[in-house]
Design a protein that fits this description.
Helix content of chain C: over 70%
Radius of gyration of chain B: 28 Å
Chains: A alpha/beta (about 230), B alpha/beta (about 575), C mainly alpha (about 290)
Number of strands of chain C: 2
Strand content of chain C: under 5%
Strand content of chain B: 5-15%
Order of helices and strands of chain C: HHHHEEHHHHHHH
Radius of gyration of chain C: 20 Å
CATH class of the largest domain in chain B: Alpha Beta
Structural class of chain C: mainly alpha
Oligomer: heterotrimer
Number of domains of chain B: 2
Chain lengths: ~230, ~575, ~290
């Protein structure tokens, strides 16, 4: 469904990722792991429309996204949960969620989708009128994921959702992500928390210094020394 | 060059005696006045970037000081001039003392604040000194020149010379470099040792004093002073326009702009043409801002800079190496820092020993950069203690921490964009532990240029460098003040393996020179190869410290990085 | 006007005078708010400090005056011409800023240049003399208790309140308004959810131009027009916008009324020439003690 070929993106003057090949099938949960500075955020931001790619091919359901203006990416069925949440902090939780369904196709089904999001994250139901900036980190992450779900995406992109959150909340979040995937939404997840990520995934990619150095099923990868070396140096 | 200046000076001084028609005498006076106002404005606003729209206010203070003292109290007017300058300066300092303390006050806010001050002062002047109808007075000028306006012309000539000389001297001093650094990136300037508050205040005081002086002279020139004419917005904006047109980054730029604008405005003197003149001025302003953001002089100088040959100053004899004390030099106890609900540092305990390379590692978001920011004074810690060589650092302004001998690089390089590579590196030595003057600092900077291999790019701007070179610029800049303790924040990220090897070699050389290094990095092989000890941070706390091999096998650390599996 | 003199006479005015002062303060404050509406939107949302707003308002006033004097067009009918024209002008200005990547501080300088040009144009066509539009509206007055209300004042208040409240409602309750607010906060992320920043920018700048046209009619109805007056309003409207909050439609209206009333009361109690001190001191205080508002 999502096809990334020979993808390269630069950050400022320097190339951040190059020659990346990646594929996410419909309904699949794929994970990109790798140490910091590897380029994971740059990769997912470029797929999500937050960052302009330099070259290569990016297509979803066969339709190419290269050269599409940023505000049209969501029309292709992609929704992004950016690193650090990046909620509209001055707006209420409800307004953030409503903005998620700004695109025309999602707008019509807004009430229904809102219900689904609230049943996934019940704590949000009570805090709909709260200003987004006043929520705790974990709750903000839920709003960010909810906002993306409101766009009724076929592919959900998540950039380090566990960042800065207590382990117990991370467990809850990943449980929710699993449920989202089980409902039929394909997921591409970028994570530093390797173990939790590999638990969830059908397929994993290891990104190091801008290139994919390993890929495959999580069980296979864990048995290889790549990941330990990349993170721990031995 | 000196001969040409001498002839020019003689010609200018001789002007009142030549017997010019009154119009030209007035015009020359006004030209000089414009030069004084534009150049004095530039001293604060052009150099430091704090655009003031209140220059008219300080000019007005000068006008009314003289008008009040000479006009209403019959003081001899020459005695009122120093007071005019002093009043304006005092007002500027009083305003600056409050305003410059407010950290969030930048750019357009300062502009509007100074504009508001103009209105306030105008109202006060109108209701107190002036009383409404303005002040009319006649003064006797010394009989040195055929006409009274000739004498005032000479006074203004002297003031212009003083102003230009002040701007020139500042531009070439470390004071000027500090102001230019503040313009480019005030926070980094402060961390590199520039006492930003004091410098801004001093520049403001000088700027206001000169405007006040010009005002005092002007009061006598017009001899009928009204609030509406004195405190007009037109003056405030014209001054900005003149400096912008000529080029705000150079000491002579505003004078160039002043001449251009004054000539233009007075080329249209009759009724209808005056209207056209104002429209032309507006059009020119727009064109300059859009097409020549650096001003006329700036644009010309830019062309010359491209052809500038790299000149190497004579090499000094080797200075003593940075000495590292043995034992603990930095002690952090319970450091904490929160941002809007996120606890970035939750009570960090660590120590750094003299002469070692300490690796600081941890997952993303664990607080490494925040710790550096807090130690170097970029942020203030919420709690805990940080002692460097026995001195408590918490609560100290960042520029004093730099003076104490601590330096840092930024993860994403933050060079001063409008200073050349050489000037960037020469800044910390001017404001570091040993305060050097500009010439000595540039010689010192050359040493570090050579150390990092950047000599060929000495006179280029940072924008012309690639990422690798910019990281080395960061490094050279941090080293140039010969710090006792240096924090390297992800110096290696984004480098190719070859570039990385080069960087590692450099870092080892730095340690050989005696510095103590704290090395924040994610590239594990570098950490393993380079560091003597490693400290691991997670969730804002230090969870392990010790030899690299041992620490990275510690089960808690493995857990922090790879995470334990959850159901 | 009582002669200022160098001594301030603090008089205790009668209740009627106080009431009339408050009322006139409210009306002038409404006009400050209306002028501030466009300025606030472009400053808060587009990050442009748009001084031409004042020049455009006056241009609108002069055009209204011209149409009324020459073609006997009712001032409100002339809105049908000025509003679309100024909407287009607002968009054109936005295009210019985008095309030349003008920074925030430079928009201040560029728009000052434009103001000079427009002002010169006005003076060239209509001369520097004071002009006053004569309409039947000006003669309509009502008496409410001991206080007088004039129709132009009431119209200005009505227009100002309805436009400010209307804009507030749009921003608060409509999808478009929420999109505008989201883009102001974080344009790239808003784009990721389908919000077209460029188009919204043109919309907001066009609206600001349209608001200037409306303000122009109000100016023409009740005030004398002179090119030099353009600058007289700048200071106090800036104060209202900064006090009321950048990007907010209602704040500047309320702040404008506060300023207007305090000015009027100052004038009633002391000499009129002290009035500017009030608004600007308030402004200075806010900048110094609450800079994070901006």
């Amino acid at each position: 469904m999502l096809e990334v070929r020979n993808f390269s993106v630069s950050y400022g003057a320097a190339p951040a990722i190059s020659g990346v090949n990646l594929a996410v099938a419909a309904g699949m949960l794929a994970v990109v792991v790798g140490p910091n500075g590897a380029g994971k955020s740059t990769l997912i931001n470029a797929i999500g429309g937050l960052h302009r790619p330099d070259g290569g091919a990016l297509s979803i359901y066969g339709k190419s996204l290269m050269g599409t203006p940023a505000h049209r990416y969501c029309d292709y069925g992609i929704a992004l949960v950016p690193e650090g949440r990046r909620l509209f902090t001055g707006l209420t939780v409800l307004e953030n969620l409503e903005l998620g369904s700004y695109r025309r196709d999602a707008r019509g089904k807004r009430a229904e989708t809102l219900d689904q999001v609230c049943s996934l994250f019940p704590v949000l139901k009570e805090r709909l009128a709260a200003v987004a900036g006043t929520l705790s980190g974990g709750q903000q992450q839920m709003v960010a994921i909810g906002r993306a779900l409101m766009a009724r995406p076929k592919l959900l992109l998540l950039d380090e959702p566990s960042l800065g959150l207590a382990p117990v909340i991370v467990v809850e979040l990943f449980r929710a992500i699993r449920r989202i995937n089980a409902a039929g939404v394909a997921v591409l997840l970028v994570e530093q928390n390797v173990a939790a990520a590999l638990e969830l995934a059908h397929r994993a990619y290891v990104l190091e210094e801008g290139r994919i150095v390993a890929q495959g099923r999580p069980a296979t990868l864990l048995s290889q020394p790549h990941i330990r070396k990349a993170y721990l140096g031995h | 060059m000196k001969v040409a200046l001498g002839i020019l000076a003689a010609a200018l001084i001789a002007l009142p005696y030549v017997g010019l028609p009154a119009f030209y005498e007035s015009f020359s006076y006004l030209l000089l006045s414009a030069i004084v106002l534009a150049t004095s404005w530039n001293i604060l606003s052009g150099y430091s970037g704090y655009f003031s729209f209140g220059h008219g206010a300080f000019f007005g203070v000068g006008v009314y000081t003289t008008a009040g003292l000479a006009g209403k109290l019959d003081w001899p007017f020459l005695w009122t001039l120093p007071l005019a300058a002093l009043n304006a300066a005092v007002l500027g300092v009083a305003l600056g003392a409050v305003v410059f303390r407010v950290r969030a006050l930048r750019g357009e806010l300062f502009a509007l604040l100074t504009l508001a001050i103009t209105f306030v002062l105008a109202t006060i002047a109108l209701n107190t000194v002036d009383g409404g109808p303005g002040i009319q007075f006649m003064v006797d000028t010394p009989k040195l020149t055929p006409t009274a306006s000739g004498f005032l012309y000479l006074l203004m000539l002297a003031t212009a010379a003083l102003t230009l000389w002040t701007a020139y001297a500042m531009y070439h001093s470390r004071f000027g470099t500090g102001l230019l650094a503040i313009h480019d990136d005030e926070d980094v300037a402060e961390v590199m040792g520039v006492p930003t508050y004091r410098f801004k205040l001093a520049a403001f005081a000088v700027s206001c004093a000169l405007a006040g002086l010009a005002g005092g002279i002007h009061a006598v020139f017009v001899s009928y002073v009204t609030v509406a004419e004195t405190f007009s917005i037109a003056l405030a904006v014209n001054v900005v326009l003149m400096a912008a047109l000529g080029g705000t980054r150079h000491w002579l730029g505003p004078a160039v702009g002043a001449v251009a604008i004054t000539v233009l405005l007075y080329a249209f003197t009759s009724g209808q043409a005056a209207v056209l003149g104002r429209a032309m001025t507006g059009l020119i302003l727009i064109i300059v801002i859009v097409a020549m953001p650096e001003g006329i002089l700036g644009q010309i100088l830019k062309r010359f800079r491209k052809n500038e040959v790299v000149r190497k100053p004579p090499v000094e004899s080797a200075r003593p190496a940075m000495k590292a004390k043995s034992g603990t030099i930095l002690e952090v106890r319970g450091a904490s820092k929160a941002f809007k609900g996120v606890q970035a540092l939750a009570g960090v305990d660590l120590e750094v020993r003299g002469g070692e390379i300490l690796g600081l590692v941890g997952p993303n978001g664990s607080g490494k950069s925040t710790l550096i920011n807090v130690v170097s004074g970029h942020y203030a810690a919420d709690g805990g203690s940080i002692r460097f060589e026995g001195v408590e650092l918490t609560g100290m302004p960042a520029h004093r921490i730099a003076r104490a001998g601590i330096a840092r690089t930024y993860q994403i390089p933050r060079p001063f964009p409008q200073l050349t590579v050489l000037q960037n590196i020469a800044l910390p030595p001017m404001f570091g532990q040993v305060v050097m003057d500009r010439a000595a600092a540039e010689r010192e900077a050359w040493r570090w240029l050579e150390f990092t291999g950047l000599e060929a790019k000495a006179h280029r701007l940072p924008a012309d460098l690639n990422l690798h070179e910019r990281k080395f610029l960061e490094l050279a800049r941090a080293l140039a003040s010969r710090p006792k303790l240096i924090f390297l924040d992800e110096v290696l990220s984004g480098l190719t393996p070859t570039e990385m090897d080069g960087a590692l070699r450099l870092i080892r050389q730095i340690r050989e020179q005696g510095a103590t290094i704290v090395f924040v990095e994610h590239v594990m092989r570098a950490v393993m190869e380079l560091t003597d000890r490693v400290v691991v941070l997670t969730y804002g706390k230090a969870i392990a410290a010790g030899l690299p091999r041992d620490v990275m096998r510690n089960p808690q650390v493995v857990d922090a990085y790879l995470g334990t599996a959850h159901a | 006007m009582g002669g200022p003199g160098s001594e301030d006479r603090l008089t205790v005015p009668s209740a009627t005078l106080l009431g009339q002062s408050v009322l006139s303060g409210v009306f002038i404050g409404a006009l400050y708010g209306l002028l501030g509406l466009g300025l606030s939107l472009s400053w808060g949302m587009l990050r442009q400090v748009n001084l031409t707003h004042f020049a455009l308002a006056f241009l609108g006033g002069y055009l209204t005056f011209q149409l009324a004097a020459v073609a006997k067009v009712d001032p409100f009918v002339s809105l049908a011409i000025t509003v679309p024209a100024f909407f287009a002008l607002g968009m054109a200005l936005h295009w210019f800023f985008m095309r030349f990547k003008v920074t925030l501080l430079n928009t201040l300088l560029v728009t000052f240049g434009l103001t000079s040009i427009i002002e010169a144009g006005i003076q060239w066509y209509w001369t520097a003399d004071f002009q006053r539009m004569e309409t039947s509206y000006a003669h309509v007055r009502w008496k409410v208790g001991p206080l007088y209300l004039s129709l132009p004042d009431v119209i200005t208040l009505g227009l100002s309140v309805s436009l400010c409240v209307g804009m507030w409602a749009v921003l608060r309750y409509t999808d478009l308004g929420k999109a505008i607010r989201a883009t102001t906060e974080d344009a790239p992320v808003a784009a990721a959810f389908g919000v077209n920043e460029k188009m919204l920018g043109y919309l907001v700048s066009g609206l600001a131009g349209a608001f200037a046209a409306v303000a122009g009619v109000c100016l023409a109805l009740d005030h004398t027009l002179a090119p030099v007056q353009i600058y007289a309003w700048m200071g106090v409207v800036f104060a209202a916008v900064m006090m009321g909050g950048l990007g907010r439609p209602l704040g500047p209206l309320l702040a404008g009324i506060v300023i207007g009333v305090s000015e009027a009361l100052t004038m009633a109690v002391t000499a009129p020439t002290w009035a500017p001190l009030v608004s600007f001191s308030l402004l200075i205080a806010i900048i110094l003690f609450r800079p994070s508002r901006f």
